[in-house]
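Q: Could you fold this chain for me?
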Amino acid sequence: MERRTEEVGPQGLASALMASGALGTDWLNAYRAVPRALFVPDRIWPGTPDGTRQTALVDRRTDPIDWLTAVYEDRPLTTQWDDGEHEGDGLGTRPSSSNSQPRMVFGMLGDLDVEEGHRVLEIGTGTGWNAALLAHRAGAKNVVSIEYDPAVAAGARQNLAEFGAEEPLVVVGDGREGFADRAPYDRVIATCSVGEVPSAWIEQTATGGVIVAPWGPLYGGEAIVRLVVGEDGHARGRFTRSSAFMRLRQQRADLPAHETYMRGQAWPADGVRSATLIPPSDVGGWVEQFAIGLHVHDAWWSVERYDDGSYTLWTYGLDGESWASIDWEPGESEFVVYQSGPRRLWDETEAAYRWWNGRSRPGFERFGLTVGPRSTVAWLDSESCPVPGAEWVR
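A: Sure. Below is the predicted structure, expressed as structure tokens.
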């Protein structure tokens, strides 16, 4: 059944966001004053509701109703692929810029707790919608937004100019370095994910100031962390909600190809066979990946699926030598594992999973992060309970 045109629009999205708890009365005026549609280009690839995949192109020039429907649904909208190198109407290889999911936008703005007069630094301008919302709340002269991609920054500046209100400062630069010229900031927000919170963000934030950013380990899983900067130069705080953002470009990992690990041999090559009672599906959830990634550093996974419904979960180490495979077949209760290289990656994964499972399967909100000048430490429930092995030295 086709959706009626009158159902498409900002009020319907506002109602949905308020019902979900993402949009409160404190941000409702900004939502109404800064229409999302003014910050969305003609060509978009709407995301799935969970934000992990993209659907087919919607072009405003040929499908204006579908475009408007997508804009006022609670979905992320990919606006650029492959750092601008992608051409054509199909999906690209990797999304590289977007207009974020409204539920996430207002959830993070709620975490940020920004007030009029606060000095705000945004990392990742994108289409400029979030910067405009911040400018409406804090005052445009108090907002700086950094965008690495010059073309994306130009598009955001155009959107902000056409919006007609006073414009925040949009800077082309490396977001890791912040923008010292306007520091210190009361609030810092990132619209791209990081595996390491840059030192400059903390150094440029006033004592008692807040940093809100998507954070996640290389292995997988990600959540929004809300950090408060202390007098000791450390930023500490809890995770607030699940997230799935594009990685800060300078923190993208260079992942070796599968063939690197096989070294010209057919699987299982020199892999050592064992078995496990933990099905690979048990380690695939978003929070499970996050918890595993806190323990299993410098590793990631992929899935190879087969026509009969079975699949192989592969785990690889950044060393280019360590790998593990585990086969899932329908109806089986024991699963074949092969491991090779200096690390036993499935053993590490299983141990991390058992740690998480043995602590009543904590959600993101029970985890926290302390970021200092020399290291980052993840903890469970309180800073006095660090996650074993979850420390990253700068």
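A (continued): The longest helix spans residues 150-163.
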